[in-house]
Structure formats: C-alpha cells, structure tokens
Amino acid sequence: MDYRVYVVDDDSDYRDEVAERLTQTGYSVISSGTAEQFLDVFDPMQRGCILMDERMPGHSGSETLTIISKWLPIYPAILITGFASDGLADSVIKTGAFDIVEKPVSLSEIVLRVREALDWNEQVWRQYKKDALVWIDLQNLSPRDLSTSIMFADNQPSAVIAKSLSTNIRAIERSINGILEKMKAQSQAELAKMIKQTNAVFGADGITFNLAKTRKNGRAK
Question: What is the pLDDT of residues 93-105, one digit of tens each?
C-alpha cells in the first residue's frame, strides 16, 4: 500500500531531512511548513500518518491535532516536541493522537515511530474496516446532519430533535431521509444501528480510540 506521511515542521532544513529519509524508506511524503499549509492538503481518506512539530508559527501542533481530532481515531498522528510536559501529553492524548515524542530524536527513531503508527493503522482497518468506512461517512456529514444522526440513533423523537436544532419536524424528516442516502443505509433502523455501532467502536470511549493508548513507553504493543 502507498502510505502517505505528512511532515509538518517550520524548520525547513529539518523538515527536508526527515522527508528525504522517509521517502528513501518508501513512503509518499507531503511536507508543510505550517499547520495552515498542512490543513489545506490533509486528506483523511488516504491511509498514512502525521508527523507534526509542536512549536510552529500560527497553530501549534497540539492545537492542530485538536482541529482534526475527529479523524484521529482512524488516522495516527505523532507530535514531536522539545519539552513533553504532563499537561501537553495529556491534552495531546485526549485528541486521540497516536504518540508524543520528545526531542532530540534521531531519523532512525522517527522512521521506527512512523512504521509503528502505520502498523497500528493497518490493525485498525483489518479489524474494523466496515465501521471505519461508516465513521468516515459520518465525519463527512454537515455538522447539522451529524447532530441529527446522533440524536436519531439515540432514539430521540423527531419533535425533540427539531426543537433542539430550532427547526420543524418536516425538516428533520427530510434531513433523515437525506442522511439515509449519504450513509448508504437501507432503512432508518439500519441507519440507527450503523451509527450506534461505529460510535461504540470509534467514539470517545470506543475500542479503537483506546487502541491508540495501548502503548508502553510510547511504543505500540
């Protein structure tokens, strides 16, 4: 598989050095000097991982991981920092990031961490491919449709959903029908089941989210 590795660091010399080493290892590398540049090119549909520095102009690495946290249950991200305080480590892990690495770190160590992240990514897709595809479809819904889907799967009546979203029942019913099509569900019962299952696997307390934490001393088990 042609994995894509995003290297995000404002130090151009170091960024180029890391990118060259990863390219030599056989990975397709996309380099960015800022978080904003990275966000412009990030494609969560492509298998791979993110290697991101913490201190950068604009958004920091940890702030950027918070922005894309909805993808981190299925897309591994490694944060590199000069000082891994307990507070920073806790906030990064809460986003769902795969790992946090403290500088100085050698190129060989970076290659090892990337390989571990990609192995983890493969493990997720082997075990949970069907649910991962549903998760992707869910994350691609509009915020309003996503809220509707979650409340619908929680068996809340259309009237309650409509009141919560400051709209009317007919609009909610139309929205649910549209979500059925977008999620490729054959019935409302199937839609509710799909959403409950994928949230159980990839949600904040889900199995796969916790796979990212099953490491010892920063290494995948």
Answer: 888 889 999 989 9
Which among 47, 43, 48, 83 has a CA at the least distance from the CA of 62?
83
Is residue 37 within 8 A of residue 83, CB to CB? The reply is no
- The pLDDT assigned to 203 comes to 84
- Beta-carbon contacts of 127 under 8 Å, excluding residues fewer than 6 positions away, are 208
Helix, strand, coil percent values for the chain (each to nearest 5):
55, 15, 30
Task: Output b/e per residue, 17-50; b: 16+ Cβ within 10 A.
Answer: ebbebbeeeebebbbbbbbebbeeebebeeebbb
Measured distance CA(192)–CA(200) in Å, rounded: 12
45: helix, strand or coil: coil
**pLDDT band at 84; cut points 50, 70, 90:** low
Which residue from 124, 102, 83, 144 is spatially nearest to 210, judged by alpha carbons? 124
When the pLDDT of each residue in the chain is averaged and rounded to a whole number, the result is 90
According to the model, what pLDDT value does residue 208 have? 66
- Rounded CA gap, 176 and 192, in Å? 11
Contact 103, 78 (CB under 8 A): no
Residues 101/83, Cβ–Cβ less than 8 Å: no
Q: Domains of the chain, with CATH numbers?
A: 4-127 (3.40.50.2300), 132-202 (1.10.10.10)
pLDDT over 50 at 69, yes or no? yes
Give the C-alpha separation, 213 to 209, whole Å. 8
